[in-house]
Structure formats: structure tokens, C-alpha cells
Design goal:
Length: 238
């Protein structure tokens, strides 16, 4: 059987875990240490912007100290291989880190935003942000102070690129979910949407996720092992 040519991959924090980026709901995860309502909601930001800035500044500062792992690299190589064959890999990620880019992936939809960008809540200007954000910063476009925030999607906000992600999933010949617990919608609903449209859906995760029953195939183990193995398998089919 010929390998799939039009693949959509959804990644979650599990793909970056072996690079040293914390997941959210595992035992030592981010939400075991922080209350998401305080650091990842518009209400939390309104109540205590300094705390929210400190939370995301710490995570942005940690990025240079972590590196893409074999799973990120395998996905980037599959994207290149499919493109050479006239196919396509669309990478939809819930991760706000930049490890997929640094591994060489290009066709990426960051549905929860990116740590290395800021957005001005007053005028909507989005720009690259390598430095700390603070309440005292002035937007260089509209000149107003106090609106600079990380370009990340918080609980209660609408994820980005949903139309592009759904279009890609519905026209794919394979949907693959990697390193995500399947507990946050709308990403958790992608596999079900794929199956309803007749698209096979595969799960690659450390352990069965909350919506494991929705998938038509699965491989369990650390991402640095199961993702390169799956990519090799797909590539060998030609
Ligand atoms: P979770 O912490 O909910 O789930 C991480 C998943 O990765 C779990 O299913 C783990 O079993 C799996 N995992 C852990 N280590 C792994 C490894 N080495 N290899 C493969 N899998 C591994 O994180 P997400 O599903 O990414 O949103 O969470 C989704 C969203 O919830 C995040 O984008 C974030 C969070 O709250 C916002 O902040 C808005």
C-alpha cells in the first residue's frame, strides 16, 4: 500500500517533554505548580499582569536552553520528503515553544500562539519578542502602554488558525496526534472530526490519551522513539 501523501499532525507538549519542556497535566506538569486561572486566562492577566508576565517570561527565557529532539526532527524530515513527492504535511501544534521551527518544520499552525511573539491588546500588532514583557512597555505602533501581552491563547480565548486546521484535516489522508492528553478542545476534537470525514486517525503518545478510543491506530512510548519509528515506516512505503 502506498504511504499517505497528505498528512496532518497535531502535536502537544508530550513531543517536547524529552527536550526538557514541561507538559501540563503530568505529575510534575505546569498545572501542578500554577493555577491556570491565574496565569492562563484573560481574567488572570487583568487581575495580576505582573504574575502572568513573569510566568511567560520564565518560559521564553528557557527556550535557548532546550533543543529539538528526535521526534521534532523526524516530523521535519517527513515534511520535506512529502513535499519532494508532491504531498504535504501540515503541522498543527498546541505548543508555544519554537522547537518544531528549530528542527526545520515550515508548514506550522501555532493554534495556541507563540512564546517568541508579543501582541498589543490595544492595536493588535504582533511582533517577534525575544525579551521579557512588562506592564510598563509601550507599543511601538499605537504608542499606548499596558497592553503588551504574550502572543499566546488563554483559556476562554479562541485558538488561532482553526479554519486552516479543519480544512487540512478534512482533506488529509491521515491525521496523527502526538504527545497530547486530548483534554483541551478544540484540538481534542480533531481526531473525531477526521474519523467522521473518513480520514484514518493515529495516536502516538506515551500512554493512551483521554480520547484514545477515537483513533483507528496507535503506538505508545516516548515520542523520541515512536515518532522516528513511525516516520521511517511511512518513508519505507515510498
Ligand atoms: P498535557 O500535559 O495535557 O498532556 C501531555 C501528554 O503528553 C500526555 O498525554 C502524556 O502522556 C504525553 N507525554 C508525556 N511525555 C511524553 C513523551 N516523552 N512522549 C510522548 N508523549 C508524552 O499537555 P497538552 O495535551 O499539550 O493550553 O495540553 C494541551 C493544552 O493544555 C496546552 O496547549 C495548554 C494546556 O493547558 C493552554 O495553555 C491554553
Amino acid at each position: 500500500m502506498r504511504s499517505p501523501q497528505n498528512v496532518v499532525v497535531l502535536t502537544g507538549s508530550g513531543v517536547s517533554a524529552e527536550s526538557g519542556v514541561a507538559t501540563f497535566r503530568d505529575q510534575d506538569g505546569v498545572w501542578a505548580k500554577y493555577d491556570y486561572r491565574e496565569v492562563a486566562t484573560p481574567q488572570g492577566f487583568a487581575a495580576n499582569p505582573e504574575l502572568v508576565h513573569a510566568f511567560y517570561n520564565d518560559r521564553r527565557r528557557a527556550l535557548p536552553g532546550v533543543r529539538p529532539n528526535a521526534a521534532h526532527e523526524a516530523l521535519a524530515s517527513l515534511e520535506r520528503k512529502l513535499a519532494e513527492q508532491g504531498g504535504r504535511l501540515t503541522l498543527v501544534t498546541q505548543n508555544v515553544d519554537d522547537l518544531h521551527e528549530r528542527a526545520g518544520s515550515e508548514n506550522i499552525l501555532h493554534m495556541h500562539g507563540e512564546l517568541k511573539k508579543s501582541i498589543c491588546a490595544h492595536c493588535g500588532d504582533v511582533r517577534v519578542c525575544d525579551d521579557d514583557l512588562a506592564t510598563t512597555l509601550r507599543c511601538t505602533v499605537c504608542g499606548r502602554t499596558g497592553g503588551m501581552r504574550p502572543y499566546v491563547v488563554w483559556f476562554g480565548e479562541i485558538p488561532r488558525f482553526m479554519d486552516e486546521a479543519m480544512d487540512a484535516i478534512l482533506s488529509a489522508d491521515l491525521f496523527v496526534s502526538i504527545g497530547t492528553s486530548g483534554s483541551v478542545y478544540p484540538a481534542a476534537g480533531f481526531a473525531g472530526e477526521a474519523r467522521l470525514a473518513g480520514v484514518p486517525a493515529m495516536e502516538l503518545n506515551l500512554e493512551p490519551s483521554e480520547n484514545a478510543h477515537v483513533f483507528s491506530d496507535s503506538r505508545y512510548g516516548p515520542a523520541t522513539q515512536v515518532v522516528p519509528a513511525w516516520v521511517e515506516e511511512v518513508s519505507a512505503k515510498g
